[in-house]
Design goal:
With 133 residues, the chain is mainly alpha-helical. The chain is built from five helices and two strands; from the N terminus they run H-E-E-H-H-H-H. A two-stranded antiparallel ribbon has the order 1-2. A hairpin with a 2-residue loop joins strand 1 and strand 2.
Length: 133
């Protein structure tokens, strides 16, 4: 009997093994993504009346971004309350509102105090600078 030729078996192509996808790095809370930016913009856009001059009502945000509060606190502790108030005016009032306030000759001391307190209270949480006098 003649020796039989070895049987050829189809060769298998090596199938590369799929590596398990690496889990994304834990980034914690991502603070600067587009959704956060949109939320902050909405926060600033949601406003309420603060004062009216010449029939024009001027507004401030109902709530402020925490970054504004952190900056105001830092300014207050490093440079004093007057500097923090300047920051608050810059962030909370529009240029038109600040101009109207400065030009209004009938602002009483009581009204002026209410406006300033509203600005400080809005940008700095209660008690950050200590109790009010």
């Amino acid at each position: 009997m003649a020796a039989s030729a070895p049987r050829k078996t189809p060769t298998r192509k090596a199938v590369p093994r799929k590596r398990a996808a690496k889990p994304p790095a834990d980034l914690g809370i991502v603070l600067d993504d587009p959704a956060a930016q949109a939320e902050v913009e909405q926060l600033i856009a949601d406003r309420e009346p603060l004062f009216t001059v010449g029939g024009v009502t001027h507004t401030i945000p109902k709530r402020v971004p925490p970054s504004w509060s952190m900056k105001a606190y830092k300014i207050a502790t490093e440079q004093g309350e007057a500097a923090a108030l300047g920051f608050a005016v810059e962030k909370l009032l529009t240029d038109e509102a600040w101009e109207a306030l400065q030009e209004c000759e009938t602002v009483t001391p009581t009204a002026w105090e209410k406006v300033l307190n509203a600005l400080v209270d809005r940008i700095l949480p209660d008690g950050v600078l200590g109790p009010k006098a």
